[in-house]
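Continuing the batch. This is chain 6 of the set; chains 1 through 5 are on the previous pages. Same settings as before, nothing changed between runs. Recording input and output for traceability.
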Amino acid sequence: MKNKTLVIIMITLAFLIGGITSQLIFKNNSNQLKDLPKPEITDGIRGTNFGIDKNINEDTIDNYLNREDSVYRDMRMLIDAGDYESIGGDSYLSGIIKGFEAVPLPKIVNVTGLPEEVGDTYQGTTLFTLTEDGKYSPNYEESMEYLEYYFPKDKNIFLMCGGGGYSGMMKEMLINLGWDKNKIYNTGAHWSYNGNNNIIIKNTKNGDVSYDFWKVTYHDIDFKILHKVD
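Output for chain 6:
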């Protein structure tokens, strides 16, 4: 009789624990999928020059990570030809936020409007060419497919870079090409990020500097396997 009572108690406890666990999982998923504020450009130079978001930026991005309905893209190259040290930045990708994957903007489209001190960034082949009349002309048959794969239209898209410029350019490009402006956030400057989810890439030991690029999920573009538009 005692054994039968013990079995019943154990089964009851199992159901209770299972129910509590399910509620916690549901609550956690609900938090991840809570409503986002609509993209809103912040005030001042950060807004007018870079289009950085007022609500979701380097100061608050930790609150919006790990969402199943979103993708996270850092628009920097591993090593940029531009002299970003001249404006207090780093031409090397020195750190990245957990969950972000790097997709190099200078290889997607020719970059314009950089500060004079920075000089020129990458000047090689690009998926698109931004023409003088503000149009984005594809250079390869796969150019649009590439964008739709790494920047899916059915997801929220969180963009970041070193100072906010590349991510602002990417946002402008996507909107121009038909993406929903209410799903794209320029989350600002990793150089100013002080959150709890930083992956440190730059190492300094005994005066020597090295970069652990193996920690970065980096989507380089191999133009040799693509098909040029005639």
